[in-house]
Amino acid sequence: MPLVNPLSPDHDPQTKELAEFFNETLGFCPNSVLTMQHRPAISKAFINLNKAVMANEGRVTSALKRMIAWVSSNATGCRYCQAHAIRAAERYGAKQEQLDNIWEYRTHNAFSEAEKAALDFALAASQVPNTVNAYIKEELHKHWNDGEIVEMMGVISLFGYLNRWNDSMGTDIEDGAVESAEKYLGEVGWQKGKHDGSKY
Q1: Is the confidence at residue 27, as pLDDT, over 60?
Q2: 10 Å Cβ neighbour count for 46?
Q3: What is the pTM of this model?
Q4: Are the C-beta atoms of 89 and 66 separated by less than 8 Å?
Q5: Cα–Cα distance between 163 and 152 in angstroms, integer?
Q6: What region holds the Carboxymuconolactone decarboxylase-like domain (predicted)?
Q7: The pLDDT of residue 187
């Protein structure tokens, strides 16, 4: 059982309306958001932040944003967020070869140098202690402008919040997220862990 159980999707009408966003990104409203409804101001603020962070205002594609989210979640070890990020990357058109080889993004030719720089940034920014350094900065600025780097940092920070939330809450993982995680991450050891509803 999770630390706190999610509430019904109908609990807060304003959250329900905002959460339609997740039907596009994931195909369902995440249990994390349903749990945030215990304090609706948090659920509503979170959804609005998510929408702002994931808006495309430069060359950082929706698919790349979700791959950034995956690298960030992998660095912190949140299996719930790993599954959600890989599912959203799939739904937003990440190349099949990228999805199949996300674990090896640094060396695989399915990823451009610009994408590798972005994903290296996600990894460095998600580690504790933080390892963003002059080299990461230089590589980022070879390929991306300031606004695009801000977009990336928004994704990394958003998932920092989600990684802490879902790993601490032991949020039950949804079937659709499990399906995507097993498809793309199962061969390299992904498991539900505490997110299967019975191991917390």
Answers
A1: yes
A2: 19
A3: 0.95
A4: yes
A5: 16
A6: 40-122
A7: 87
Task: Give tens-digit pLDDT for 53-90.
Answer: 999 998 999 999 999 999 999 999 999 999 999 999 99
Check residue 197 and give its pLDDT.
Answer: 75
Q: Which two tokens stand for residue 144?
A: 């991306």
SS (H, E, C) the chain: CCCCCCCCCCCCHHHHHHCHHHHHHCCCCCHHHHHHCCCHHHHHHHHHHHHHHHCCCCCCCHHHHHHHHHHHHHHHCCHHHHHHHHHHHHHCCCCHHHHHCHHHCCCCCCCCHHHHHHHHHHHHHHCCCCCCCHHHHHHHHHHCCHHHHHHHHHHHHHHHHHHHHHHHHCCCCCHHHHHHHHHHCHHHCCCCHHHHCCCC
**Which two three-digit tokens encode residue 130?**
């933080």
Residue with tokens 């998600």: 126
72 neighbors 126 (Cβ within 8 angstroms): yes
